[in-house]
Design a protein that fits this description.
heterotrimer; A mainly alpha (320); B mainly alpha (616); C mainly alpha (494); B: 616 residues; mainly alpha; two-stranded antiparallel ribbon; 25 helices; globular; C: 494 residues; two-stranded antiparallel sheet; 2% strand
């Protein structure tokens, strides 16, 4: 009983952490972009303020049952995915269900929320929302291919599909996977550019053109909940990348609370650094049309993905 | 009398009876057909154990009917889907003409499918296969809305090519191995790719055509979409699985081989064909504007996955194929029923004509939603299990690293048409002309809901399907097939705990749903689809805000090279050229008596000139 | 023995002369008497079959003249089987045509009935005769009846078709006579058994030249390509019961004659291959021609030619199983094609022209007839569980036994062509948009009985072929056992 309670508490902590970090990073991004454009920009905690405002709105508009359900879907996807991702290696608080699911499952679970939001957007009846959905889904097919190639390469190279195992392998060998299979890393990074949907892949939302796309008809508590989910998702994506390629976090020899604290710092640092890749790309990029974006993902990232698989096969000795 | 013959007799009598009853009361036909199918399945499931056998002689040939665990597995699908489809038909077919004809052929088709799985010798297999084929052909051409000359006959021609390929293989099995029993032929290595390679190749050809594998899939989309939906439910759900049944059977010799790399090239070719089928089916599905056509193409794609699974030849791969066989029957059956319900209630399934049915047909939408989640392969519904098994089989147990990406591409692109289907029919603007649409009748909803529940349950406890599937695999030569009730494990020992996932999702769902619903409950306004913000204005009542044409245009543009390859056109050209060629020969018959007389004389002279060559 | 094979011949001949007299007594005599005669033939057949099953084959010499001069009738299991089949089908066709009013428009019903009866009787004669010259005589009887029946409607097309038939038929007679002459000069006998016995002594060149004349002459009767130019026209212009008779009776007799000559009389090598190749060519060209036909009866005619081609292939393969398959196919072809012609003629009867495209949606007008047509179409393509399947199956098995892979593939590809055009018609009948008024001519009860009995045969034999297979098997055995045939006939004679 105590174990379960502890686990639930751990899950709660994880969720809180993901939410905070996700929101904070969102604020940081706005700040960074502003500074790059020589503006002052909003404060880092601006996203929290936005959320507070949205959640305290007195009137909420729903366009039907699926519209009502869309935020629920996103939260389901976010929470479920989060539970299966090792946030800190070897730390009981953040262990959750990490050994009970694998990469293929995560791959599908992460799309789950998008589909829910798409359905909600569909019911709103706003053609702009659906246009956004159409673009978003098309782009999804674009970036999932190199991403899947990269993941497959890792699975082949290390003969496992569980993320925790990847962490163990990196801890044992002491070499991050980014060095063990650099091509997979390149493919994954390029794919993650699409995943974050910042410029040049931001045509889905395209505020000036589509009135923020799929989310156009959401407001108040709905938008607020969706924002929360989005923040958690941003965290998930970053942690996943860090876990897979950058050795994860929390792999230190310190005991107790100190170990956790150092681990968390390490995590924040790594995720922040990784997060800056899409952010900086966004700063210097214009916007791709959807088909251009898809074509982009099917060219170089896919090439690197295939290279990654060949590399993985070479490494695990299939060619010998 | 043998119990198995009684089942066939029940179906046969039912078929004739419904045909006759139609002249007295067309209302009774549906109920009669349903009751007969129910009776047949009850007798089957209560009276026939697995391992049952019945031998007899006909036309000087030794025939044998019986059931192994493998065929039992497919019998589940056949009877389950048939009973549900017939229950659904009662209301769906109401008011349409020629019901006796429809139900008569329907029961005959069931008889044919059942016959195929109980056949343990090649002659009965072929006989039942052909009965199944022509009975279903009668149903395919039931809707006379289109030119009979091309579409319906296309199905039949391709089926015939397949069937005759099988027949060729069968007669040569008899010559080379001196047996017509399937088990004996397998034991003697008839399906071995080393000895007489054309035997397994021809058999595979025959079965793959039924399973709509590239490049013989062109019959499928039109046949699926033009048949009455209640029939397409088992057409795509159960009958196409007969092809899977056969491919599995032919591959038995491969599975039995001690060397796992046995006939790797055959499996690679078939696997790639399956993969390309999946891609082609998917990309054509997502440009359709007719929901039925969309589902039809999607069926082709899903069958591609199953073939990929079979082609791996590994335990996990076969398990994936068998599991997908069932789950595809379940969710695609449900989706075709949904399309049928929409067609029945709203008059069309053309997505450019109707939209926003969610408020009119909420239960139908619920079924569609769950089935689409299953189709897209997302957790926690059953479809995910199949996808997981397939990917893990390809990655961990077989060497098809590129094929897995092809499959993944296809199943990612499947999200597009999944969304398209839901959006096109149920979401979007609520138009005036669909205002009077009512929810589907209860007898149509019940089978749909049953299928939906199966899809949900199988996502949490797939062991319910694994158990008979594992038995089936043991029947075709695998040893020690392991499975768990509610979690998945691959070769490397990585597990995914589905029970836990389902519980977690359920818990989060309840919490967030309650939270979202209760929070600001009084201040939440539920407004219609016209009350939206478009550039700050409120759109007028008459403004057209439906977005249905060229839905995935960006994707279409990006994937333009893929669309340029059109198998349909190639076959069509082939057919037309052949007919033109035939026309040339036909001109030999000039209709002129003098010419004919000349032929006679010339023929005589030629024979006399070459008499030493021809006769010795 | 009360009933002897000669009854086959005598009864129709007496009737043919009696009808013009009887018609003075009762005006329906012309229609009823042939029926009685044909029914009597059925009884004769069944009796004889029963007899030979117990006592072995019958060889009867007429008027005490011994072979080679006398007329010699032979009933073996093989000829008995064919004679039974022909007489039963002949009777059913008579039953079907009993009230075929349209015949009254053109010619007079008594001529029609007499000619029809003589054609069937002549065909039986071809089958049971034991000497080659009589065969020639019977072929002429059949030919003359057939020519006149083809031109029965006295229309321009009918006359043209009749003339073509006559022209080509003239060639057949001339060549046949030439062949007989050569054989007679070489062997000094006309009895087929005796010819077969003396054949080894005939010089090879002579033998082959004679064979070629026979092959061409009988090839015309058996509708072998390229000698079958007359067939489509004749089939399509003749009255429909006659077309059915052509398919079910006359072509059977033609094939019989060819097979008897090739298998029993001659012992030339290469003739099997010849049959196989020409059979295949015949089938291929006929089915190819059928697919582009616009006229229903022409389509059926080409399809008949195609079936005969398949029969010839099977005989060409020559093994016991193949001959068995060939005989089974002949039976099936006779039954199914009769049914198709019968059903098809009601379609034509109810439409203005004979075109396939005017069959659109005729299902609603003529449900039962349409059902029979669809059944026949499925059966002739060879779908199980109809009788057509088994014959095709056995032919394929026998081809496989000889390892003729390409032949099998060829046969099956041609079957696909066949399937295409039949199903187009079936699809049209059932599913094309309907135009026009309700049917003006419902099928009469006797026609329905005739068609149902054929349909019943198709289904029953399809589900349980064992009913008929022993008879076909013994027929096949009898055909292939040449020495026994010779021995028996010569021993009976002496």
């Amino acid at each position: 009983m105590e174990g379960i309670l502890f686990k639930i508490f751990g899950a709660f902590i994880t969720a809180l952490l993901a939410f905070t970090v996700g929101m904070l990073f969102g604020g940081l991004r706005r700040k960074v972009i502003a500074r790059a454009q020589n503006r002052v920009g909003p404060p880092v905690y601006q996203n929290f303020l936005d959320l507070l405002k949205l959640q305290s709105k007195t009137t909420n508009i729903a366009h039907g049952f699926m519209g009502h359900m869309a935020p629920v879907w996103i939260i389901i996807a976010a929470m479920t995915t989060l539970m299966f991702i090792p946030v800190l290696q070897g730390d009981l608080w953040f262990e959750n269900l990490t050994m009970k699911g694998d990469l293929i499952f995560l791959l599908y679970m992460m799309v789950f929320g998008n589909l829910g939001m798409a359905l909600g957007a569909g019911q709103s009846g706003n053609p702009n929302s659906v246009l956004g959905v159409s673009r978003g889904l098309s782009q999804l097919v674009g970036f999932e291919i190199p991403y899947f190639l990269a993941i497959t390469a890792l699975m082949l190279q290390f003969q496992t599909t569980t993320i925790a195992e990847f962490l163990n392998i990196q801890a044992e060998t002491g070499v991050w996977i980014v060095l063990q299979n650099p091509f997979a890393f390149i493919a994954a990074v390029l794919a993650s550019l699409g995943m974050f949907m910042y410029a040049p892949f931001n045509i889905v939302g395209a505020p000036a053109e589509l009135a923020s796309g799929p989310r156009a008809e959401f407001g108040g508590k709905y938008l607020g909940t969706m924002m929360t989910g989005g923040a958690v998702f941003a965290f998930i994506k970053l942690v996943l990348m860090v876990d897979l390629f950058l050795g994860g976090a929390g792999n230190n020899n310190l005991e107790g609370i100190a170990g956790t604290a150092v681990g968390l710092l390490e995590l924040l640092l790594k995720t922040f650094l990784f997060y800056m890749i899409p952010v900086f790309v966004a700063i210097v990029s214009p916007r791709y049309r959807t088909e251009q974006a898809i074509r982009f993902f099917w060219k170089w990232p896919t090439f690197f993905g295939i290279l990654a698989i060949v590399w993985a096969l070479y490494k695990n000795g299939t060619f010998n | 009398m043998e119990i198995i013959a009684i089942i066939l007799l029940i179906l046969l009598v039912g078929s004739m009876l419904t045909f006759l009853i139609d002249s007295f009361s067309s209302k009774l036909t549906g109920i009669t057909a349903f009751l007969f199918s129910l009776a047949a399945s009850v007798v089957f499931f209560t009276q026939i154990p697995s391992g049952y056998q019945f031998k007899f002689q006909l036309a000087g040939l030794d025939l044998q009917w019986g059931l192994t665990d493998y065929s039992y597995y497919f019998a589940y699908i056949i009877f389950g889907m048939s009973v549900l489809a017939l229950l659904y038909s009662i209301k769906y077919m109401e008011g349409k003409g020629r019901l006796g004809y429809f139900y008569g052929s329907f029961l005959l088709t069931i008889l044919g499918m059942f016959g195929v799985v109980i056949s343990q010798d090649f002659v009965s297999l072929f006989i039942f296969w052909e009965i199944m084929t022509w009975a279903s052909f009668l149903l395919v051409i039931y809707n006379a809305y289109y030119k009979v000359k091309t579409k319906g006959v296309k199905y039949m021609i391709f089926s015939a090519i397949g069937a005759y390929a099988m027949l060729t293989a069968i007669v040569f099995i008899r010559v080379h191995y001196d047996t017509l029993l399937i088990s004996e032929a397998i034991a003697k290595g008839a399906f071995n790719f080393e000895q007489y390679i054309y035997i397994p190749i021809f058999l595979l050809l025959g079965f793959s055509i039924k399973a709509a594998v590239m490049p013989f899939h062109v019959w499928a989309p039109s046949a699926y979409s033009k048949s009455p939906m209640s029939f397409t439910t088992i057409f795509s759900g159960a009958m196409s699985k007969m092809g899977v049944f056969g491919i599995g059977l032919v591959f038995t010799s491969i599975y039995l081989g001690t060397n796992p790399e046995n006939f790797y090239w055959v499996r690679t070719i078939l696997g790639w064909l399956g993969g390309i089928t999946a891609v082609m089916g998917t990309i054509y599905a997502l440009i359709q504007t007719d929901a039925k056509k969309l589902l039809a193409y999607s069926s082709v794609a899903q069958l591609g996955y199953i073939v990929v699974g079979l082609s791996t030849g590994t335990k996990l791969g076969i398990m994936a194929a068998l599991y997908l066989t069932v789950i595809h029957a379940v969710f695609k059956g449900a989706l075709f029923m949904v399309a049928g319900a929409v067609e029945k209630q709203a008059g069309t399934t053309d997505m450019t004509k109707i939209s926003g049915l969610i408020r009119r047909m909420p239960w139908t939408f619920l079924v569609a939603l769950v089935s689409i989640i299953a189709l897209a392969g997302m957790p926690p519904v059953g479809g995910f299990v199949g996808k997981w098994l397939l990917y893990e089989a390809l990655i961990t147990e077989s060497n098809n690293y590129i094929l897995v990406v092809v499959v993944f591409f296809s199943s990612t692109a499947a999200f597009l048409y999944s969304y398209r289907f839901l959006y096109g029919l149920f979401l979007g603007q609520e138009e005036k002309d669909t205002k009077d649409v009512k929810e589907a009748p209860i007898t149509m909803l019940i089978p749909m809901l049953i299928l939906m529940i199966i899809a949900i349950v199988s996502g949490a406890v797939p062991g319910l399907i694994f158990e008979p599937a594992a038995k089936a695999m043991e029947a075709i030569g695998f040893q020690d097939v392991t499975w768990q009730m509610s979690s998945l494990t691959n070769l490397w020992g990585d597990t995914t705990n589905l029970g836990l996932i389902s519980m977690l999702i359920g818990a989060v769902f309840v919490i967030v749903f309650v939270f979202i619903t209760l929070k600001g409950y009084k201040n939440t306004k539920d407004v219609g689809t016209k009350d939206i913000s478009t550039s700050g204005e409120i759109p007028k009542e008459w403004e057209n805000l439906s977005f249905q044409q060229d839905f995935f245009q960006p994707f279409q543009r990006a994937a333009a090279p893929l669309y340029s390859m059109n198998m349909n056109k190639i076959w069509k050209n082939l057919g037309e050229n052949l007919e033109a060629f035939f026309g040339f020969f036909r001109k030999l018959y000039t209709g002129n008596g003098q010419t004919y007389a000349l032929y006679v004389v010339i023929f005589l002279v030629v024979l006399l000139l070459f008499k030493d060559v021809i006769f010795s | 023995m009360v009933i002897t094979p000669v009854h086959y011949i005598v009864a129709p001949l007496i009737a043919a002369f009696a009808i013009p007299l009887l018609i003075k007594i009762h005006k329906d005599a012309a229609r009823i008497v042939p029926g009685i005669v044909l029914f009597y033939n059925v009884i004769v057949s069944l009796f004889l079959m029963n007899h030979i099953a117990e006592h072995g084959m019958i060889s009867e010499t007429l008027a005490g003249w011994q072979a080679p001069w006398g007329i010699n009738l032979v009933v073996t299991p093989f000829t008995g089987f064919l004679a039974t089949m022909v007489s039963i089908l002949g009777f059913i066709i008579w039953l079907y045509g009993y009230r075929f009013k349209r015949t009254l428009k053109g010619g007079e019903v008594k001529y029609y009935e007499i000619l029809q009866m003589m054609m069937i009787a002549g065909s039986i004669g071809i089958i049971i005769t034991g000497d080659i010259f009589n065969m020639f005589v019977f072929i002429e009887i059949v030919g003359i009846s057939a020519f006149s029946l083809t031109a029965f409607y006295r229309s321009r097309d009918g006359a043209e078709a009749g003339f073509k038939y006559l022209l080509i038929g003239g060639f057949a007679s001339a060549f046949l006579l030439l062949g007989i002459l050569i054989i007679y000069t070489q062997t000094g006998t006309l009895n087929m058994a005796q010819i077969a016995e003396r054949m080894p002594d005939v010089p090879q060149q002579m033998k082959i030249v004679a064979l070629i004349f026979f092959l061409v002459a009988l090839g015309i009767e058996a509708e072998m390509f390229p000698l079958n130019g007359w067939a489509p026209d004749a089939y399509s212009q003749a009255p429909s019961p006659t077309s059915a008779t052509f398919a079910a009776v006359v072509s059977v007799a033609g094939v019989y004659a060819l097979i008897r000559v090739v298998f029993t009389m001659f012992d030339v090598e290469g003739v099997n291959n010849y049959l196989m190749v020409m059979g295949f060519v015949t089938m291929l060209i006929a089915e190819i021609a059928a697919i582009s036909q616009k006229d229903l009866k022409r389509m059926l005619a080409y399809s008949s030619v195609g079936q005969v081609g398949l029969v010839l292939i099977a005989f060409g393969i020559g093994s016991n199983l193949a001959v068995f398959g060939a005989l089974f196919l002949m039976l099936n072809h006779g039954v199914i094609k009769s049914l198709l012609f019968m059903a098809g003629s009601y379609f034509i009867y109810n439409t203005d022209d004979k075109k396939i495209k005017s069959l659109n949606g005729i299902y609603k007008k003529l449900p039962i007839v349409s059902f029979f047509f669809a059944l026949g179409a499925l059966a002739i393509i060879g779908f199980p569980p109809f009788s057509g399947f088994w014959s095709k199956f056995y032919i394929l098995i026998s081809a496989a036994d000889e390892k003729y892979v390409f032949l099998i593939i060829g046969i099956l590809l041609v079957t696909i062509i066949e399937l295409t055009y039949y199903l187009r018609v079936v699809g049209r009948i059932y599913f094309a948009k309907q135009e026009g008024e309700p049917a003006s001519h419902k099928p009469s009860i006797n026609a329905l009985v005739a068609m149902s009995s054929l349909a019943l045969f198709i289904i029953v034999i399809g589900v349980y072929p064992d009913l008929i297979m022993p008879h076909i098997q013994s027929a096949a055995d009898a055909l292939l056992d040449k020495s026994n045939y010779i021995q028996q006939i010569l021993s009976i004679k002496n």
